Amino acid sequence: DEPLKLSYLIIMTIKKILTAPDPLLKTISKPVEKVDDEIRKLMDDMLETMYDAPGIGLAAVQVGVPRRVIVMDISWNKEDGIKEPKYFVNPVISNKAKDLSIYEEGCLSVPDQYAEIERPEKCVINYLDYDGKEKQEEAEGLFATWIQHEMDHHEGMLFIDHLSTLKKILIVKKLVKAKKQSSKERIVA
Ligand code: GNR
Ligand code: NI
Questions:
Q1: Which DSSP state fits 133?
Q2: How remote is the CA of residue 159 from the centroid of ligand 1, in Å?
Q3: How many CA atoms lie within 13 Å of 107's alpha carbon, on the beta-carbon side?
């Protein structure tokens, strides 16, 4: 028989994603002091949680950790199935373009709700990567929209905060109703 080789073991945890109107989602996230193993473990867990959801991005506050950490993978649902995870620690956005683009956005913390949101079509992003190295990238198109959506989470904002008060109230009402419904179903089950 083949000998069993276990060179290393990675345990990743799928965490619970908070949904609006959870007050924790309004927390302003704190910067990370050092990209150490604890932060890397958080990023691994966030990535697993995001793939499981499934989503294309996730901010730490969405799993109840108010730190400036984002994971993202905009490629993994393409046909080739190759995953390309990206990690952004302490991201800062600059050089926002004056021109805006509109995309229909959704959010794992606002389940089943979508709305068209206008944001600068291009921006520059400075951040620390998985190894704590400083990086700079230009973002445009969907990537620009997504990174700005994730950055909003660090400021305690959701995409619905860009909508009119009326639209926002309607969406939050729907979410509260859906939450009540699912907890009833759990009791019956
Ligand atoms: O999975 C997600 N899809 C998405 C679609 C359009 C615009 C933004 C997003 S982000 C979202 C995941 C999420 O909630 N990240 O915070
Ligand atoms: Ni979101």
A1: -
A2: 9
A3: 31
Cα(74)–Cα(2) distance, integer angstroms: 38
Q: How many Å lie between the centroid of ligand 2 and the Cα of residue 83?
A: 20
Asked if 130 and 40 touch (Cβ cutoff 8 Å), the reply is yes
Q: Which atom of ligand 1 is nearest to the CA of 62?
A: 16
Residues 113-159: tens digit of each pLDDT: 999 999 999 999 999 999 999 999 999 999 999 999 999 999 999 99
> Using CB atoms within 10 A of its CB, is residue 109 exposed (0-12), middle (13-18) or buried (19+)?
buried
> pTM for this one?
0.91
Q: Can you tell me which atom of ligand 1 is nearest the CA of 117?
A: 7
C-alpha span between 3 and 167 (Å, rounded): 61
